[in-house]
Amino acid sequence: MSLQELGREGEALAVAAARAEGYEIIARNYRCSLGELDLVLQRGHTIVFAEVKTRRGDRYGEAWESVTLRKQKTIRKVAIWYVREQDLRDYSYRFDVFSIQYKNGRWQYRWFKDAF
């Protein structure tokens, strides 16, 4: 499985997990000049900006560990842009991380809600 395929499969797992908990997917792979948002979810009056990180193993640490302070800052900037563009100012917001691992033919994930 290529890295792109791994990423797509990991994102599909995150989408399925979010839907299973009653979240609506309002955007996938949103891009603007500031960067990208992997997933934008909504449940009730809460908008969730979710970063999805997928790895084949834990040789270099868990996937969530790659969401550095620098990456968080970028996600926040893109989220602000998205909120203004979509006129979503009347909602509450949260930043989540899906840490997904594919190891020994099995998928595992951890969903860190309100991660940063």
Give the low-confidence spans: none
For the termini, the CA-CA separation is 31 Å
Helix segment count? 2
CATH topology: Trna Endonuclease, Chain: A, domain 1
Detailed description of the structure:
The protein has one domain: Trna Endonuclease, Chain: A, domain 1 (3-Layer(aba) Sandwich), CATH 3.40.1350.10. Helix content is 31%, strand content 41%. The chain contains 2 helices and 5 strands. The chain is globular and about 45 Å long.
Break the fold down into its secondary structure elements and pairings:
Layout: H1 3-20, E1 24-32, E2 35-43, E3 46-55, H2 69-86, E4 92-103, E5 106-112
Parallel strand pairs: 3-4
Antiparallel strand pairs: 1-2, 2-3, 4-5
Condensed summary:
The protein is an alpha+beta fold and 116 residues long. The protein is built from 2 helices and 5 strands; from the N terminus they run αβββαββ.
What are the salient characteristics of this protein?
globular; alpha+beta; 5 strands; Trna Endonuclease, Chain: A, domain 1; five-stranded mixed β-sheet; 116 residues
